[in-house]
Structures
1.
Amino acid sequence: MKNRKNFGINCDRKKNSNSQLVIPDISVIGGGSIGLLLSSFLSKKNKVLLLTRTSKQAKIINENGVLVSGVTKFFSKNVVAKKYVSKLLKGAKILFVCLKNYDTQKVLTEIKQNVSLRTLIVTCQNGLGNRELISNIFPKNKVVESIITFGGTKKMNFKVDLLGSGQILLPKNFRHKDMLNIKNPFIKISYVSNIKEHLWKKFIINCSINALGTITRLKNGDLVNKKSGTIELIKSLVKEAVVVARKYKIKVSDKVFNDVVKICNKTKNNINSMLQDIINGKGVTEIEFLNGKLLKLAAKNGLYLPANEMVYDLVKNIEHMNRKIYG
């Protein structure tokens, strides 16, 4: 391939002239950090189609493969990329949705006609309400929730940093388990019987970190540094979220604040995804599916959450300012 740069790893990849004819076992929609990581992990054993927002990103991935760096380094040459709307989707047994929540309705409606009724749809998104939203678009497909506990930072259209070890949590009765054999020491797949409790735990953690990190522009580790002055606010955010969870009969540990601190320390150099959106000039974030969703659930039970309402309002103001600046 002409003028292709060497990025410190053996990237010999013959351009696949028949790539458009490859029928995928698994499709991943969303070319952000999680979409790149997931498609590269899964392509070790399966034929993977990665659906991206732009033809430009798809072309770059088809020419270069996907390069993962960070805590581990490997090169995946088996990912075929296409722009969102592709008839190749019909062959996929599993579709992993790695879109930002605010893009879900528009993008999945666009690809709906190309998704087989037999395709199992897995949402890998932050927040609550994703399964319900996707089920409304695909009422005849089975839709299940998953939890991704690792993070990444997209460095280029084909390059992504894995920021730490983590898990992919899926329902215990998940079909196609044989397809998800990820052989990577940093990533583990677990099947759990109480997926909703795990989903709520991650939801509470995200509500406690993402908005506050966006407002203060602090990395995760700095949020729990006593010098930052944010510890007490995190405690309030967690406490309010736990009250709401228990109203919905979700079992939540009394030590969930400790979990937040551990995660912040474990991912101390991470810039959370909401803050990344703002830094990248976006005028919308996932706040509606996080603290915004929590406030709606609280209101249905007559609960007032002052800490969550404050961070929600401040993030909405930051979104507004970004729209004024960047259009």
2.
Amino acid sequence: MKKLALTLLTVALTLTGTTTQAQAQTQTNVQSARQQQQPAPQRSRIEEGTVRSALLGREKSYLVYLPAEYDANPTKKYPVLYLLHGAGDDHTGWRDKGTMRLIADEQIESGLSLPMIIVMPDASGEGGGTDGGSTKNRGYFNQEGWPYEDHFFEEFIPAIESRYRIVGDKQHRAVTGLSMGGGGSAAYAQRHPEMFSSAAPMSGALGGMSRNNPNDNPVEFVINATPDQIEGLRTIRWWVDCGDDDFLWESNADFFRAMKAKQIPLQYRVRNGGHNWEYWQSGLAPILTFVSIGFVE
């Protein structure tokens, strides 16, 4: 009898263990099936393309950041931010060195910024100077035989805003950039105030890139602005950010003083840091929030 009882107990324990293992396997199979049925999480992406320029006589490259929800909302249009690179880079600088995709993803996912399209144009010159090529005609302004600013407004923006689902009006368009691109973003907003709701130069070359061309000097533009130009500047939301150890701090301070003297509102930030990617990476997130507010005001 004792042997029979022990045998039955062993069988019962074995059956219980087998059932438990089977249940666990079943649960695993169900969970796996559910995961397979769930759609893959949406992810942002960066695309590279070119715009044919008749004015420059060549293809000009660009990168575009598309937010995670872009493909899932095929009829929705988005605001756009033009993100300009500095003199030592091209259109890939913000992606490869600035980690802009990660920054934009975090801002949008946290609700601190609106989903937006971010466009990074190439103003490195004729020969792709970052790869050892010629840097001739580098910059965002018109030069003899190289009307880059005309290209940007007459060819590049229309091509981009027809190629991607962009709202395409002043309220939903903004511009920012670093160093040379900071100067470009300020000058573009000054000369084309009907185009942008916000402008946010970072470590900007606001005293101009060339002493021989006063037209690319945002400080001088404000000082010499006509009443109509001043009114145009007041239609733009301004954000200026430059590190206290940046060699361009003085021209940024001059820009701040000139704007205040003409009673043109702006947000002016001086943070600890220099002229480097660490500073610009930390500066991009609040700018995304700043331009987002302008998109909905």
3.
Amino acid sequence: MKTNIDCDYLGAEKWVETKLDLLNWFDEKTPAINNVGRDYSKAYQTIESHYMVLERMLFEILWRSDCEIACGLCCFFPDDESVMVPVEKNRLKGLRDSLRSQNKKPEDYVKLRMLSELHPQIRPKISAPKKTGDFITQHGGLDMIYFLRTKPVFPLDKSRLKEAPLLRGGSKNWLDEGCRQCVFLEDDACTVYDTDFIPGSCKNFMCFTGFIINILGLWGFISRKDKGKPLKVLNKAAFEADLVFASPRFKELEEQRQLVFKNLVESYLKGFGVAESHKAFEDYEQKYFIDRKKLFKPALSLLNTQPR
């Protein structure tokens, strides 16, 4: 398969959406399942286990989105301030206290900007009703926001631009050779990443490559060591994997798996055909995992690894 850098890489994103739909469907069925009662039969245990695995997987993908690639490229920002990191008011005190405890001046690490003068790309995101209370503070009667500073030196090495991952969904990132690194970036690692006061937009950010590699890791297809391979290799593997997510064969596998699971739940609720539905689900699970490994094998071969 040849990577098409102009393609819309939305295969994994859409797959996650289908999983969220399934989780919502199951949540609607939960009261009825509880009314039937927990008989702890094999069928019930399978249903409960499938739900818990699904819920945990989505939590890891969407809400515990720690990036394990650690290339540091998302921590470089343009001089025109079209991309900046806002600091929430409830995290600002912790950040200041930490800096002062290290005999550092907070003003060397954060800067104030007027809401009305922000770059057009940033202002709508910050001034949205749900965000206004998080970021905006009053100074002299003006709406102001704190942002992280960048270092006056250490611009982005032009050679690294070729390695830069895309944004989620395949959109082009904001990087160019004039970008400068965040004040908290040291040796391609964020020095405040594991603190309580790291800005939310940093903690929750996940690029396209990190998003795909995270899923493959959760499936047990790749190890932590694999995630440390050159970014160029990880990008290529992510591109190829996302094409699998978007492929008709993978969609067919997923749709059939969802169908047999729903049939099992419905049979359990009705109280008949449970044994047959349970066997059909278990049989298909074996086929699903075997076929899924085969589909992703070409993408994983780029990392010189094989799905376990």
4.
Amino acid sequence: MNGRAEIRHPPQTAESGRNVATQRTSNPPKPVSRLNVVDLIQFMAVPEPAREFIVEPFIRERNLVQFAARRGDGKTFINLALALAIATGSPIFGFNVRRRRRVLFAEPEMDGRELQDRIGAIQNGLPNAVEPGYFRLVCHARNPNGLFNLATPEGCDKLDANLGDAEVIFLDSKKYLCHVHDENSADGYTHFHRWLMRQRYAGRTVIMSTHMGKSANGARGSSAQEDLLDVCVQLSRTNSGGKGLLALWEFTKGRGLSAKNQESFTVELRIDGNRAEFLRGDVSHQEDERRQTMLQMSLEGFSQGEIANRIGVHRTTVSRTLNDLGLLKQLNSQHKGTTPR
């Protein structure tokens, strides 16, 4: 003995050997699910179903659409008007709604009476009435314990269980219906993005609203959140105070939309008693002034991000405007290696 404790192992028997083998085989690896890999000839031989326009020419079936605006810039009013137009088959904002669709509208924060007043005023301004079953509402006023959180599997399942025959789903707004710890990270939205893809695959259209970030360069949070989306609209209020609203409507993303169909315009809301009316307007005069401001700031050495923040538009709008003016390449070459101003 050298002073160290001797380690004794139990004798190996046939029975103990069988137990070890049983433990190794009791948890076999899970089978890997197979993907449906299709040969190109087979894929092209089976036509996919055509996507009809819901709101022509800007929203199709199976589209994922997002409206971004600052607080008080008209997100909820415009989304309610759009939802009611879709549910009634009424034209709205100068767009044609081909036929009525079944809508589910989720509104988690507004007071119930205010919501009723807004919906009533919008209904009074539309040519067609809502038929039973075509506009269903899930709101805070009827669910005081809260609605659902689409950042979790449980929240996605809860909404799925209440979709019914909805063809178009409105989420107003994403901030209160998809709670994440870090809005600037795309990781927290994994379940929400999977839920969106399932709705697209099921043939539904999802239209959501979100708050603008601290800058004017788009919606709050990571830009990767917009990768799945087909259409993104930025709303910027151009008047202040009063019951009316005048907002600039800009397309910041338009998958499948022509350049003409992505032209900016204004939406004016006029409220007369208990009747709301939406008017579409031209932005030529306002656009000329804004283009002149962008041009002057660019020549003074401001970056595109600084111009966007100062004017209150999306950065892509600044880039597109400077490119149209033929100044983008010139400014990039002038500013390369220099400090603005």
